Amino acid sequence: MQYRISHTTKYSYAEPASVCHNLVHLAPANFPRQAVHEYRLTVQPSPPTIVNRRDYFNNRVDYFSVTEPHDGLTIVATSRVDVSPPPPIEDNPPWEQIVAEFRPGTPRILSVLQFAFKSRHIPMLDQLQEYAKISFTKNRPIYDAARELTKRIRTDFKYDSSATTIQTPVAEAFANRHGVCQDFAHIAIGCLRSLGLPARYVSGYLRTLPPPGKPRLVGADASHAWFSAYCGDKTGWVDLDPTNDMLCSTDHVTNAWGRDFEDVTPIQGVVVGGGAHMMSVSVDVEPLEPTATQSQSQS
Amino acid sequence: MSPLRRDPFDPSTDPSTTTPPPLSNERPVSNASPNAPPTPALFSQYRKGEGVYDELYDASGVRGAWRPFVQAIEGLGVEGFKRRWQQANRALNRNGLAYSSWKENEKEARPWELDPIPLLIASEDWDIAVKGLQQRARLLEAILTDIYGHQELMKSGVLPPEVVFSHPGFCRPFHRQRPPANHFLHFYAADMARAPNGKWWVLADRTEAPSGAGFVLENRLIQSRTLPTIFHQANVQRLAQYFLAFKRAVAAAAPRVENPRVVILSQGSGGPNYFEDAYLARYLGYTLVEASDLAIRNHRVMLKTLGGLIQVDVIIRRPNSDQCDSLELSHTAEGVPGLLQASRNGNVAVINPLGSGLVESPIFMAFMPKLCQELFGEPLLMPGVATWWCGDPGQMDHVLANLDTLIVKRSYRMRGRELAFANMVRNQSREATIKMIRSDPHQYVGQEVVKRSTCPVWKSQGIAPAPIAMRAFAVASGDDFEVMQGGLVRVSAAPDPLEMSILAGEKSKDAWILSQGPVNRVSLLKKAGGPIDLKRTGGELPSRVAENLFWLGRNLERADVCARLLRATIVRLTSESILEEQPETPALLRALADIGQIETGYGIEEIRKQLPPLETALPPAVFDASDSFSLRAIVTEIFRLTTRSRDRVSSDSWRILHRIDKSFTPPAVGQWDLSDLLTLLDDLILDLAAFSGIVSESMTRTQIYYFLDMGRRIERALQQVRLLRNCLIEPTGDLTAILEALLEISDSSMTYRSRYLADVQMPAVLDLLLTDETNPRSIARQLVQLLDHVNALPHNTSSGLFSLEQRLAMTLLNETRMCDVTAFRESEDLNPNAPLSLLLQDIESLLPKLADALSNRYLVHAGAQVQLTEIRS
């Protein structure tokens, strides 16, 4: 499945700013089932240079600074990617077996193990473990349990973009049973980690689908987030979207992964001067070939 | 029992018993001759502690390293020793040495206390510790290199990955940076204690931003001054060697540059290490900056100075790593956004590199022996205190079973919050501690408590043993580390864990490493013969420093004029005639009210009669710290501004300002009245004059001086204008008395008399105080100097036009010069609409505009930093 993606972010400041420094995670990831054919980042006012590097999780990061006085900033990331569906799950061991693989004293894969620990935004909570155990029953295959957890979050939680902010702790979103895709991903990850299972946060885009009989909406969406569960060394990471209760396939385009939101924030910026600022964002994920429609809720 | 070991409870050694003791406190020096046993007057009550290593005694008596010292000290006698010690204490006080520096709402910083008896260590004894410290520093660096690189130690499991992945200080952006000169550790310190078997043990490693070297330097200064002869005879290893190595390490870290610009990035004057940062900056010749003084341009770090942005090559970092870059470490709003990327690009050397603090957490102590074997294939030379990590179930059981003898610490150090945690654990029940550990075992370690060695400490009447700990310092030198020949010794009677904070403990000591033969004298000054580039300016001045100095100048001048006005008023209040009958009274009270020293009501006769008498109202008003206009508040502000500019103020000027702050307070006990206040004001005026004298005689005429002096000139001109207005515009009563008071407050009576004798006339007074450019107190004189300074500042010369500041300064001076004072003779010349009044009004409104223009061009920083927010999905 091929897409053209454009992600536009606009900031406008109350007063002119003298400088702004930014680092962005806006490039789609290149990995076996996703190929990036093109990626371009344009910034207005245009910075002298844009440099990039790979972060600790091997995500691409772009850096730039605007050093002339400016009263707003526009960042446009465009890309063309090809996404394939995940292979069918053939090896699906009991979840306890995965936990055992990551116990101290066994040789462990650091790149996976690192996602088994608490992180700044996802603490280890008893209530999450309790909630997880309903699906993670004795000897249940890992994928089946994680898939059910994904469904339960969709069922038990209310999608409400006004209920939480970036600062809302996981415990609070969990207690109130509401939030947005970021909260749901954090809750699912917290559930898995509380059992000793590695789980990571994935940021990316969801294909923009039209409601039946209407033209496709353009630019109505923001970036999306879901989680990835480690299902053993044969199956590897499996992406699940609790916001839409689905296994991620060709409707999901992956940008970056990390321990939680903070590792992969799309845009991190510091503005010197400028006072208060307003922000607007639009994301357009346009298929380059016709496909069947499918209903799902957008984050 | 050695002759020095006398039981303090044995009456035969107690001087207070009726039987004269065999040893008197006043024995002459000759008794300390090498042939006779030393007179143990000072050390007579010293009794070595049981079950610990005593630094002074071994089983057979005084240790060899201490013998000549003890003998020499006894030679001084109790009184001689006390006298010297008092002198040294005064020096400490004069230098205003304090650990915690200025804090808002806190009147006094905690004073630094030095014990007069140094810790003596023989060179051959110290060399063993040096080797251990060098190995430990290399090992910690190797661990950092691995964690921030290939992570082989974690892959092999020698270091459990949990240790690093659970570490809140393991910020992923620090991974795979290229550290300056390929070193992850440039500065290292270790807190050590000597165990009963005489071996040094490490209580804690310090790798983030080790502090304390400045205090060692200051201790040495005072200590060698207290006992100069003894110090020089004792062959004490010099500290300068270490600071030379420090400078070499800094130069080696600099990317590509011959003569690098080095800054010490301080946490600011509110931070706990500010004093030391300022002290080291001055001693080493580096620029002291705060994060807001730095900006990133094109991945380079720039210092904001009066002359514009200039590139910084090396940053000696004091704040914690995770507070240094608000761009990459988005959980913090502090630091310099973009610093990490500038450092990754190799455009600036940050030392220690960001992330170096990772290994100073106690959890690493549990793995050091194993890591040393793994990485170096050799045993750890200097052991760390035994540490059990509760993340390992077996070790947790050990900790829980031995809670009474172990000390529980957080696995991951939180700088500055360790002591509070130790107190919390101490005060909570055993059950609560067990519950705390079980709830998150990875987060805690148990550590053995080392029985620290005891060392002689001066107590008011003699010398007694007290437990000590010592911080040792090392700096990178090639592929190894150079260890300081000395260290910071801290004393604490209570079994406090001294390694938790440099604040812990009661006082500190100098440490003397005694060489067998004569020691090398080294100096930080360049060797003669090498080429030197002559310079006429110092380092470029950060805008923030210029701002502090500008306000320091203004406050100094304001304090001076307030003090003079108050003095003139009090002299009249305490004279034979009643205040109300003196013709200059209304003018004085108006002026005092105008400058905020008394309630406005006192300046208006009808209201004054209903207020409490001035005699009782004035003294408390002067010391009212809650009123920001009171003289005491101005003095406090002066001290605060000086503290924030510590690295820019010479030590003599600092002493004067410190003395002003200390002594300008009402007597603590007993009744006090106007005459006490008069004395205090006299002293204050003299001290302020002394400060001005030092400034004008010893400060080079660079930007520092200009900003300090512009502050003074603006304030003095402004106050002089106000004084003239309050005294001369619509005066009531005898004009001669008013003019005389005016001359007195303006410190110009002498000059006037020498010119005109007793003939006091308006035009002559006005000439002296307003237009005479030779009188240092005249308004014209201030304006001439202001224009000079403004012209000397860096300007944008491309346009060829005068700047706003230049135009304002010229207008002020020209208007004053155009004034013909001989025209002001009649009383109508003093009407509010007459030319004199209009001139004064003009000057009074233009001066603040000049101050604003200067501030806008040179001092104001760009706006506050804001982190961009994200829309969430």
Fraction in beta strands of chain B: 5-15%
CATH architecture of the largest domain in chain A: Roll
Write down the CATH topology of the largest domain in chain A: C8orf32 fold
Strand content of chain A: 35-45%
Radius of gyration of chain B: 32 Å
Short account of what is shown:
Chain A has about 300 residues and is of the alpha+beta class.
Word description of this protein:
The complex is a heterodimer of chains A (299) and B (873). Chain A has 299 residues and is α+β, with helices and mostly antiparallel strands. Helix content of chain A is 18%, strand content 37%. In chain A, strands 1, 2, 3, 4, 5, 13 and 14 form a seven-stranded antiparallel sheet that branches. Residues 291-298 of chain A have low confidence and may be disordered. In chain B, helix 14 (543-573) runs antiparallel to helix 18 and helix 14 (543-573) runs parallel beside helix 21. In chain B, strands 3, 4, 5, 16, 17, 18, 19 and 20 form an eight-stranded mixed sheet that branches. In chain B, strands 7-6-11-12 form a four-stranded parallel sheet, covered by helices on one side. Chain B is built from 27 helices and 21 strands. Among the domains of chain B are: 11-94, no CATH class; 389-449, Dna Ligase, domain 1 (2-Layer Sandwich); 544-699, no CATH class; 700-858, no CATH class.
